[in-house]
Amino acid sequence: MLLCAALLLSACGNDAASESTSDDSALDPGRELSITNNDGQTLEARAWGTGNRYVVLAHMRPADMTSWFDFARLLADEGFTAIAFNFRGYGESGGEPGEFSVAADVRAVVDAAVAEGASAVFVIGASMGGTGAVAASASNDIAGTVTLSAPDEFEGVNAVGLAQFVTTPILLIAADEDGDAADDALAIASEASGETELVVLAGAQHGTNMFAEHGDEITAKILEFLEA
Questions:
Q1: Strand ranges (DSSP E) for 97-227?
Q2: What is the pLDDT of residues 92-115, one digit of tens each?
């Protein structure tokens, strides 16, 4: 499954932009959500599905929430409610570009899912979104956490240090030639208090860009994790 039709490398570290050139007009656009974070800023978000099990999807840099839209629709077809959102400084979300608070923003979306009546909330994050997902899982009742190429630390958020407080299962996925991504995933897994599973794939793709080479495998692994 390709999340994006074209993948563009950026100058922002290992994170790569994802840009779609396909016509999405016939696809379900999801319902618009407006979520307020702890700074009083509004986060732009969209949701798909009607299930009472929610999945929060956190994007990588410099991609935005659209990098998760295809997977969100797939999750909705599987009976979940999926919420993709823009971190502060992205899209129509409040805040300035480069003003990161990945843990607080993920927490805000988790809280919104709970307020909607979620019976269980999972968080899935790519790169910086994965670091934010681990941090949010350390202080929330999260059913499970999935990371794609999450750095061990991002803008002051230390995923390795916070992993000890995560008692629910974590699935960590990284590519073996993607810089330190596999080592960072192992470091997070080693410190986590709950069950962990580490999947290292061949290649150098980062975050949601790994779907380009390993879409079927990643999708199957995540769905298996969520159902378990």
A1: 120-126, 144-148, 153-154, 157-158, 170-175, 196-201
A2: 999 888 889 999 999 999 999 999
Q: CB of 160 within 8 A of CB of 166? A: no
Q: What are phi and psi of 16, to 5 degrees?
A: -120, 140
Per domain, the residue ranges of the chain are 28-227
Residue 34 backbone zone (phi > 0: left; psi -120 to 50: alpha; other: beta): beta
* Segment-wise mean pLDDT, segments of 10 residues, the chain, 228 residues: 32 41 70 92 96 98 97 98 97 90 96 96 98 94 97 96 97 98 98 97 98 98 97
pLDDT at res. 24: 64
What spatial distance separates the first Cα and last Cα of the chain, rounded to whole Å? 22
Is 207:16 a contact under the CB 8 Å cutoff?
Answer: yes
The CATH number of domain 28-227, selected from 3.40.50.1820, 3.30.460.10, 3.20.20.190, 1.20.1440.80: 3.40.50.1820
Distance CA 207, CA 57 (A): 12
Model pTM score: 0.89
Q: What does the radius of gyration of the chain's CA atoms come to, in whole angstroms?
A: 16
Whole-angstrom distance, CA of residue 194 vs CA of residue 5? 36
Single out the residue of 139, 174, 1 nearest to residue 71, CA to CA.
1
